[in-house]
Write a structure and sequence with these properties.
CATH superfamily of the largest domain: FAD/NAD(P)-binding domain
Helix content: 25-40%
Structural class: alpha/beta
CATH topology of the largest domain: FAD/NAD(P)-binding domain
Strand content: 15-25%
Number of helices: 34
Strand order of the largest sheet: 10-7-6-33-44
Amino acid sequence: MDLRIGVYICHCGINIAGKVRVEEVAAYASTLNDVVVARDYKFMCSDPGQDMIEKDIHEFNLNRVVVASCSPRLHEKTFRDVCRRSGLNPYLFQMASLREQVSWVTVDKDAATHKGKILVGAAVNRVSYHERLETREVKVHPDVMVIGGGIAGMQASLDIADSGLHVYLVEKQPTIGGHMLQFDKTFPTLDCAACIGTPKMVSVGQHPHISLLSYSEVVKLEGFIGNYTVTVKRRPRYIMEKKCTGCGTCTDVCPVTRRSEWDEGLGLRKAIYRQFPQAVPITFLIDKQKRPPCNTACPAGVNVQGYIQLIKAGKYEEAVRLIMERIPLPGVLGRVCPHPCEAECRRREVDAPIAIRDLKRFAADQVDWERFPLPVIQDREEKVAVIGSGPAGLTVAWNLRRLGYPVCIFEQLPVLGGMLRVGIPDYRLPPDVLDREIRYLLRTGIEVQTRKTFGRDFTLKSLSEDGFKAVFLGFGAHEGLKLRIPGEDAPEGVMDAIELLRDVNLGVKKSFGSKVIVIGGGNVAIDAARVLKRSGAKQVRLVYRRSRVEMPAYEDEVREAEEEGVQLMFQIMPVLILVQENRVVGLECLKTEMVATGDSGRPRPRPIAGSEFILPCDAVVPAIGQNTAAPWADTVPGLQWTTRQTIVVEKETQQTAIPHVFSGGDAVSGPSTVVEAIASGHRAAAAMHRFLRGKAADDKAETSFPDPAGCEDWRPVPSDLEKEERAVPVFSDPHIRSLTFDEIDPGFSTEDAVREAGRCLNCGGCCECMECVRVCETGAIDHRMPEEFLSIPVGSIITATGFDLFDSRPITQYGFGRYPNVFSSLEFERLNNATGPTGGLIRMRDDHGNFTDPPQSVAIVHCVGSRDDHYHEYCSRVCCMAALKYGHLIHDRLGHQVRVYDFYIDMRCFGKNYESFFRRCQEEGICFTRGKPAEIQYQNGGSDSGKLMVIGEDTLLGMPYRIPVDMVVLCAAMEARKDAGDVARILGISQGRDGFFLEEHPKLGPLSTSTDGIFLAGACQSPKDIPDTVAQASGAAAKSLSLATRGKVEIPSTISRIDPELCAGCRTCIGLCPYTAIDFDERRGVSVVNAALCKGCGSCAAGCPSGAAQVRHFRKRQIFAECHGILDGLKGEAYGCV
C-alpha cells in the first residue's frame, strides 16, 4: 500500500514559534518521502486545527498523520481521537515534541529550527512502520477503593458512597481521621477540628455503601483500569470488631503502658488501647510486637514480661497464676533457676538486666498457697502414671491434671521433689517452699505413692494392667561419676557430692572431719563445699583442674562460697587419694597448664610433669559429674538407650520407642537445669495429651501462642531513657550465714520489687497477661487472631495516604529532641487538644517529661525543614497559618500577658480570609520578626538560666537578636510519607523528586496518575491545607464516578507480544515483568502474555535474549526507524542539506 502522510506543525502560540521557524519546518516536511501535505497552524489542538487535519485526511486520502507540537503526554490522545473520527486507525499516528524537546530547551533559533526538522523527519520515518492496532473495550467494575482515611479519604468516600456506589476505605492506622483529628483548631475560622472531623468519621463508619478496613494496608495490585484486583492485608486487632462495645474495661486492667503515638509521645497509653475517644471504629486493639527476648530465652516458655507487669501493678496472685501456666513451682524456680532470660534482657543496653528470677520469687512469696484458687478441672477417664517427682515429672503431672487426666506419681524416695529435694541445699531452697508448692499441686487431685521403686514394686506391664494408658519416666541423675584414681574406694573419707547432698537434705547425720577437699568446678561442687562449711568442716578447699574462667559454676554462687570461707584452688589435677588405716589423710595432685581447645570447645588442661604435691585432708568429696541410674533397664526391653545411659526419645515429643511411654528431664538429657527439665515436661505432656486423644504425638496443631501475626520487631530502646540501678537483695553476713542452713537470700521488699518491675521496657508490647480476657464481658478478645488477606475487585482507586511531619532532630541547632521545651507543631497541637496529654492545657516540661507550669514567653519558628536546601526546597504552604493559629491560641488560653514571638522568612497568607487572620494576630500583640533563627541555646546560668535563647538576625532591620523564651514551637515541613515508595511501587504510580506522588500533568491532569484508573487526593500529592485537600478529594471522587458511570473503558493496545517462533522458553521475561502478566505454556514450551494484565512497559522486550518479546507500537523496526530518521537528519545537517 502506498503511504500518504500528512504533517502538521503547531505554533503553540509562541511557545514553539518563538524559537522555531515553523513555516520553514513545514516546508521541509513537504519534501520528505511519502508526505503529501504539510501545514502549520497557530493552535493545532484547537477546533480549527483539528478540523484541518480531519479535512485533509478525507481530501488527500491520508493513511498516516504526524503532528509536531507539545508532548504526547499532553495531547497525544487529542490527535488520536481526530484520526479515529476521520476513519483512520489512531495508531497510524506519530507525535513529535517541538515544545519540550526543542523550543523550551534551545536558545538559538537556527539551532531550534534545525532540531525541529530532524525530529519531524524522524517522526515521518517512524510512522511509515506503524501498524493498525485494534483498541479494546472492557467493562468497568463499579466499586471504588480509597486508600487513606484522612480528611481527603473520608470526603472522597462519602461523595462516591452518596451516589450509590460501594467504596472500600483502607486505612493503615487503627482509626480514620488522619492528622486533622490530632489538631485542636483549624485556621482561619478556628473551628474545632474534632467538631468538623468527627461527624465525617461517624458518617463513614455508618454509611451502608462504605466498607471500612482500618488497620489494613494494600499489599498487591493486579489488573487494569476498570478491573483491578486489590489484595488488602488486615492486621489483627486481637479484638473482634463485632463484639467490642468500646467500654474500655480492658484498659483499666492492662498493666503495660507505652508512649502514645497519637499524642506524639507526650502522653501514655496502654498496650490495649483506642487512639482517642471519638475513634472510628470504636473497637480497641492490642499492640503486639515480636515475642520478647526474655520469653524466647526461657526454655520453659514462661511469659516473663507478663508476670513482671502484673507485679508492677500489684497483682501478685495473677502474676503467679500466669507463671504457673509454664512453671508448676514458681517459688522454687524463683530461687534456683539459672535465669537465661536475664542474659537476653534488652534493659542491659541501658544499665542492667531486670532481676527476673528475683521477681518471680517475690510474687510466689506473696501468695497464700493454702487459699490460692485451684484451676477448674473437667475430669477425663484415661489414667496417667508419672515415675519420678522431679521437676520434669511434676510438670507432666501438673499439666495433665489440669487437662482432666487422673495422674498418679510413683516416687522411690520417701519425699517428693527429686533432685530439688535431695540435690539442692536448704540455704538455697528452703524445704517449706518446696513443700507448699507441691502441696498445692496435690490439692488438684494428683495421687502419690512414695517408696515405690520401678522394676521392683511395679513395672510397665503392671501399670497397663492397672489401667494406666500413658507413662512418663522422669527419674533423675542421682549417681555421681567416679574419679577413677587410686584410693577412691577407701572405706571412710570419700563420699560423692550427690550422695552427700542427699544425705544432708534427708537429715542423715555425717561426720566429715575438719579438713575436706571437694573436687570439681560445677554447681554441685560449690553446693557441696558450702554444705560442708555449714556441717562443721573447719577447712574446705575446692580443687579444679582448669582456670577460674572455665569454671562452669554460676559466678554469683562461686563468689558467695568464697565469702563464706571456701578456698578455691585452680589448675590442679588429683591423681591419688592417700589412705592410712582405711582413712583418707591427703590428696596427691599435679599442677596443670591450659593448652589448645579440646573436643568440648574449652581449653584443655595438661598435667605438668614433676609438679606433684600433697594436700592434707580428712575427706575427699568428688563432684565431677552425674549420671542416671536405671538398674531396671533390662526389665524394659523396648526402650532404646544412648551410650551415656540416657533414654532415646523423639526430640519434639519426648516419646520413646514404646508408643505409650514418654520420658524427659535428666533421664533423657543427662544432668541439666531445673528449667530445662520443666521444658521437657511440657513437651511430653502436650504429646501425651495428643496421644491419649488418639492423635499422633507429633501433631502440633495445638501449640502455645506463636509470634503475633505480622508483628513488628521489638520496640526500640528509648534513647533518652534514664539509668536506674538494678534492685539487689541484701544478703546477711557471710560468716554468720555459713553457720546455719537458713535461706541466705532475703528477697525483695514490696517497694524494691515494684520499682524493679517498673524498669521493664515492655519489648513485646502486650504482655499477654490475659487480664483483658478475664474482664471482657462480651468475649471480644482473641489473642490468636491471625492476619487476614482480602482480594477485592474494584474499577478505580483513589490514593489519599496523606503526609508525614518532618522530624526536626537533624537540625541540631534547634535542639528538638534534646531540650524538653522545644515542641514540634503536632506536639503543640496535642497540648492544646482537650483529649491530649494535658487536657488542653499549655504546659512546659521538665527534664523527666513531666508537665509543669504554663510558659510566659513562646517562640514560634516557621519553615523548619522547608524552603531549605539541606532538607526540602519546597514551601509547605500551611506553616505560616499554623504559626498564626498557635500564637492566637497561646494568648487565648494563657492570656495576653504571655509574650509570643513569631519568626518567619516570608509570610504567606494566600487563602480566603487568611490575610485578615494575619491582621488579627498582629492586633493581638504577637511580635513578628522577619528572619529565621540560626540557633536555639539552653541557658544554664545567669539571669536567663533555664530559658531557651533564640538567636538570629532580623532581616528587615539588619540587626541580630537574642530573645529568651520558655518554650519554642517548630512549624515543621510536610513531607512525603516514609512508605510512599512502597505504595508507589504497588500501585505502579510515579513519585517526584520530593517523594510526593506525581500527577499525570500539573495543569490538565492534577488528579490523575501515570496509571489509568488511579487518582490522587490530598497531601499525598503535595503539601496543601484542609480546604484544598477536601476540594481535590471531591474532584478525585468525581473522576472515579465518571469512570464507573460510563460502564466501560478503552484499553490501550500497546501491550507486549511474544513470538512463539522465536521464544526459546528461557522464562527471563517472567521474572522481569512487574505486573505478573506473563505465564509459561508448558505444552508448547513458550512464554505467553496475559493481555488483560500487560501494561506495555517493555521490560520483557528489553530483556529478551532472542528478541521474541516486543511491545506493539514500539517494535524494534519502529524504534530503529525513528533513530535512523534522526541520524539521517544529522547527516544531512552535516552536508548542509537541512
